Amino acid sequence: MSKQLRKPEGGRRFGAIAAVLAVAAATVTGCSSSGSGQQQDDSAPLEVWIRQDAGSPAAESAEALTRAFSEESGIEAKLVAVGVTDFETKLQQRTAQKDLPDIVINDTGQLGNLVTQGLVREVDRDGVAGSGDLADRAWEAAQGYDGKYYGVPFNAQAFALLIRKDWRDKVGADVPTSWDELIKLAVKFTDDDPDGNGKDDTAGMVVPGTTTRGYLTWWFSTMLWSEGGGFVKKTGAGYTPAISDDASIKAVEKLQAMFCDSKVVQPGATTADSSTTHTVFESGKGGIYLTGPYMLPRFDGSLGKDKYEVVAAPPGAGGEAALAEGENVYMMAGSANEKGQQRFAEFAASPAGQKIGLGVDNGGIIVRLPVNTKVDGATEREDPRWDVFQKVYDTAGRNAPALPNWSNVRQISSEGLNGVVSDCSRDVGRAMDELAGEIDAELEKQGAKG
């Protein structure tokens, strides 16, 4: 592929990015791309990848989506369900082989990686059919550091609290309206034997605190932003660290106190990933879990929908905020059918595609919250709990910063945060100053320093 990469505007702050893109373009030379002289065939079949395990209900929904697209467009499309754990590895293998799939449905958080490697085509937002029906917040998550779009929104989600309602009734507490009240409820869940078994075996707060894939940062983002803090902040044309600001330090001090003072988190939280924390909550060992809507079907089956309630995370000193994420349809570089790529993306984001993705018929959820404003997911599912997540997304959802590589900053931040919750003697202010220095160096490396 001889990919033509447009140099981002904006002067030297994009110098490092341009250099990376140039290297990436050379790396994938031999593939085909937009404007590169690759012969186009509007009827050429499409290979579609999605990050789901083969044979899963979610993969079945993706297969239904792909099949419906082919029936509607007349373009043959083959779905490849690539396992969750080795998706990036397999994509890099195909990159090395100079044989990318045509379409990749992947996390919004991976956009920076895909762009800096030169693996995705730029998207003309105004040229996408139905683009005006897609939520602005979803489009924001398809936007790169240079302000251009590199994906079409497909799926969104925001995070809310799952609280054991039966435990809350048992300890005589109201629904928390602030983070301080939430932590007090967590203390009651930890100390007051909410399950009534006479044992000291419950934790108030369920936290995936491992550094793996930046889980602790992922979980803590909602709390940090609600308290008015941040990992980075926009400064001029770039970003500077915000984790050592006063509001951030106060939020991290609250986090450390949850682990070290009130001790409301589950045992082993500092090494727990989400697969572990899911089990803690559904097994009756934890009472409050900040997570996404995709867990409702599982917990309804394992725990019972009458046992827990869905509540928006409360406002903090900085107001209401919640981590928003999702997935985009990425049109990969080198396709012989670029018109077909765009038609697939448009279909996936259309009301018809979104409704298939809701998985109402088979439980295979690949659209958690619709990105198309003409689709009401709670109504389609006949479950008002989904509307709680939708309202959080609409009113308080906050995407991760549009850095060239947010995942690196997320990982660095997670390691710094894990250090202060694993070692209760650590001074938070000093530790966050050190973390700010590491983030600053990473921003410099990415050419994103303001």
Automatic annotation (TrEMBL):
PROSITE patterns recorded: PROKAR_LIPOPROTEIN (PS51257)
UniProt cross-references to Pfam families, sorted A to Z: SBP_bac_1
Keywords of the record: Signal, Transport
UniProt xrefs under Gene3D superfamilies: Periplasmic binding protein-like II (3.40.190.10)
Family: Belongs to the bacterial solute-binding protein 1 family.
Name this polypeptide is given: Sugar ABC transporter substrate-binding protein
Native organism: Streptomyces edwardsiae
Classification of source organism: Bacteria, Bacillati, Actinomycetota, Actinomycetes, Kitasatosporales
